[in-house]
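Lecture notes, unit on protein representations.

Consider one protein chain, 218 amino acids long.
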Amino acid sequence: MRIVVAGGHGKIARHFGRLLAERGDTAVGLIRDPEHADDLRADGAEPVVLDLESTDAATLAAQLTGADGVVFAAGAGPGSGVERKDTVDRAGSVLLAEAAQQAGVRRFLQVSAISVDEPKPADVGEVFSAYLDAKLAAEQDLRARDLDWTILRPGTLTDDQPTGRVELAERTRRAEITRADVAAVLVALLDEPKSTGHVLTLINGETPIAEAVRGAVA
């Protein structure tokens, strides 16, 4: 498989790229900073320098031609403000989905966030509120498109070592999930056609990933 990943230098994307490379597949990582290219090559991924905030759908579609699927794993990241939560977390996903349709690439995996469609806590800050709004808007846009989409809502992300065991369901409690386990679940979802059309919440748990994916989409 050849999978194009937006946010290619992000921590989840780099785990994902290494997992694909280990089994003989290829991740094509879209990156803004050309200095990150060597990191992706070391992972076994192919870097493409392209800024989602300053390109258009036709230009992006040209990079998707021949791909078997796309993954939206980009985010404005900590330290960014309200405006970039919209231009990256929402508009970046919308742009990638539009480009996928133009390129004829049907499979689309979107990394969202846990509880985006639930009432916000009373003490939520302006920036985090904007982040949740952006993620939910990106989901709503994707769900309206004629694509073979899957939306993954991970819990609080950590850099702990992967456990290989998760809880994956339409709803879970709020808890942590390692970025490495998120990447492994993304790979498993790519391999499971029945995951199309599902919105799934992910935290660390007791079920091996392959079994958890089968159970979640049964």
